[in-house]
Write a structure and sequence with these properties.
The structure is a single chain. The chain has 2 helices and 6 strands. It is of the alpha+beta class and 96 residues long. It has one domain. Strands 1, 2, 3, 4, 5 and 6 form a 6-stranded antiparallel β-sheet that branches. Strand 3 and strand 4 form a beta hairpin. The longest helix has 17 residues.
């Protein structure tokens, strides 16, 4: 699920993501849904000026084959993704 937000908070993107419960993981951010490693929300970001382009998906489980990046994930039209998107937008409205 892709969407765009404006960073009107004055905070760095890394600070914003931490405040939302996400941790830096390689070149992206992740937030666990529960206590286990999976499922987890996974976000790739792109910044341009004060715009943040978010690519959000839900990793259901780890890749099945060693050396492969393919895994079971939800990318669009998922209730969980829509709920997480709204959680992010609501949190950013409170901090701006």
């Amino acid at each position: 699920m892709k969407f765009e937000i404006k960073n009107k908070t004055g905070y760095t993107t890394q600070h914003l993501m931490r405040s939302l419960g996400y941790l830096l993981f390689h070149d992206a951010y992740v937030r666990r849904v529960g206590t286990l490693r999976y499922p987890r929300f996974h976000i790739y970001l792109k910044e341009e000026d004060d715009n943040i382009f978010i690519n959000l998906h839900l990793d259901q489980k780890k890749e099945s084959y060693q050396g492969q990046k393919a895994h079971s994930a939800d990318y669009n039209d998922s209730f969980a993704l829509e709920k997480e998107k709204q959680r992010i937008l609501n949190a950013l409205l409170k901090t701006s």
